[in-house]
Amino acid sequence: MKYIGVHILILLLTGCISSFVPDVEEKTNNLVVESLITDQNKSHKIKISRAVPLGKQIIAPPVKGCEVTIIDENNIEHPLKETSAGTYSTDSLKFHAKPGGIYTLKINTGSLTYISSPVEMLPVPPIDSLFYEKKVLVESNEWGRREEGCQIYLNTYDPLNRCRFFRWNFTETWEINLRWENVNNRICWITQKSENIMIRSTTAYNQSRITKLPVRFITNKTDMLSVKYSILVNQYSLNEDEFSYWVKLKNISEKAGGLFDVIPSAIMSNIYNVDDPEEVVLGYFSVSALAQKRIFIRERFSGLADIYWYCPTDTVWGEGEIIGLNDSLWLLEDHPLPDLYTGTEFIRMRVITRYIECADCTTRGITKKPPYWDSETLN
Fold first, then answer.
1. How far is it, in rounded angstroms, from Cα 10 to Cα 173?
2. Residues carrying CATH 2.60.40.10, the chain
3. 27-122+240-289 sits in which CATH class?
4. 362: CB partners within 8 A, 6+ apart
5. What is the pLDDT of residues 291-327, one digit of tens each?
6. pTM of the full structure
7. 339 vs 331: CA distance, rounded Å
């Protein structure tokens, strides 16, 4: 009876778990605007879509056929072209935003007109330094080895105190090498963008200086530091209103999950419906000057995990069929090698594994080397 009671308890605990979507009154057709205009001489994109209902994991429907215009401080209109469904782009040859300029976004959906408040592009100082430090995670593990991670920091300073509010994001790339020399795809590069919101205000200080800001921490549980790693950090200038907007977004992203958390529609946008200012618009028309800095890391770190520990450690020599293999095993042949005596080519060895990522790095990255990979003078 004791064991029967335990089984019944387990069934009750596991059988009653189901997803809960609260019954809330929400408007699911809100306009969503994703936009960032910088002083970079390039084409800038503005994405316009409609909000989706709470709990629905579907792609937000794009809003097509809009007339989208950016108006500068001289009242000159710069029309954007719809380059894909719901995505509108500036002409890099005709529009170039600059610090000190004031810009307004105007969207005409055909039946409704939306406009943003005018936003001044504040100047941003350069990133003084981007650097890293080794961090000891374990002084001596079970094999007597030290384990180290990597903490990346940033310093910046605006001597004129014109930029008091900052935002950062980054793109990181690292090289991976598989253990076998001649598998089809041995060397790849992986690139990913940051997801966390990084913001900082210097209004509480008598100068706009930020020292040793933690940008990225890399543990020893990945292969990011196994060969060579690079990070490109973007530094944006913000005005006080946009800083407040990002503060609220940050609070949502870090505290999401509670029944009484703030919902995105409660965050005020700087875009409104001309005929109905009470309509909720999601998103923000961001105008920021941009500074960038890149560093490379290829120093040796102790105690890095081998994420390919489960892969085979040997190869099979020869050619032809290998008896006993079934369809669940991957068989990748090495490139043909010349015979020293006859000059003919033949397959020297083969890698046998149940996991394709053990012998083909394109399951995680791409084989095309980034154009900046050997340009370490960009530090």
1. 45
2. 27-122+240-289
3. mainly beta
4. 185, 188
5. 999 999 999 999 999 999 998 877 777 666 776 665 6
6. 0.84
7. 22
